[in-house]
């Protein structure tokens, strides 16, 4: 998905209400509001989405296809170059290590493969997460964490406003 620029975008306002940490389990309760928008043909589109919990109006700024492609060019080039370097290092360790019988390079080849190959493959699969949308600023509220039995509960210290209100944008499925 991240090789292409999505035409349809899902905008979401996420209001996080509380986090409850139980032994071995973390529960987070949120209230989400979302809508679908189509990328503008030219220029930028300002889309407003209201949070269903606190009523805050989040402003998303969505760029057209040409601008988004331009924004993605440099991060994509950088990701692909990094992937080539990482995979190249691993390939060199294996090839030189085992054709020359160099025990040091052979020993390094295994951890290098485990560390670098997943990162390299990830960078090749999604070279840029930029979809040309600027989400609204996140708002954070004053919170307290209290112990309730075996759980720790984090919630707003005053009036049940919750922990945070933020917006995000994703390619529409
Ligand atoms: Zn909110």
From TrEMBL:
Keywords: Membrane, Transmembrane, Transmembrane helix. The chain crosses the membrane at residues 79-97, 103-125. It comes from the Bacteria. This is DUF983 domain-containing protein. It comes from Streptomyces pulveraceus. The lineage of its organism: Bacteria, Bacillati, Actinomycetota, Actinomycetes, Kitasatosporales.
